[in-house]
What does this fold into?
Amino acid sequence: MSGEPAQVLSCISLFKSRPRMERSPPDRTGPVHVPFGHVVANEKWRGSQLTRGMQGKIKLIFEDGLTPVDFYLSSRSCILYITEADLVAGNSYRRRLVVVRNSSHLKGIVIVEKTQMSEQYFPAIQKFTVLDLGMVLLPVASHMEASGLMIQLVQEQTKEPSKNPFLRKKWPVISEQSLLQTVQQIPGIGKIKARLLLQKFPSIQQLSNASIQELEPVVGQAVAQQIHAFFTQPR
It folds into this structure.
């Protein structure tokens, strides 16, 4: 019997010595109240050059627990900001994008830092965001450029829907060059064919849903089959 207490103590000691599993903070994509003309920002951006560039032009409210969102422009629209460091570090940013994309009540806009260092990683996030997820991607060169863009987005939120270009099918125009470059990543598609395709199918969603018969008059049978396979076959 004398050995039992020692065994119990040994088990307790072993249990205490085990490292605790750290849990990732839960993803929050539920409704967030955003006062008119304000931006609700993730606490991690407090004091950053990005938020300093917006101060005095729009009102910022900082909150904890907004993961995976960086900024809420309204209760239904948000910004996912992908930094240069995020791109260089790998594909961990993808989970955040997918969580927001799968949200039934939230429209996500992806702002990506496209710099000299991150430029080589840009085509991958461009393809994943625009082609695979069908989300809007807006490249910026710096935090200050991003600040100006977000101020513009907030100002557009205050307009009537009929006068708001961001609510009037204007998204493809904002990222037209980015969209053009993305379509060119489809096998067999160059700049001319990409332009012809976007004239006929002005969004990635329409292009991905097009049948071979609908694509043939634009690019021919062989390329039409390649495009259809690109979107329908698992990758």
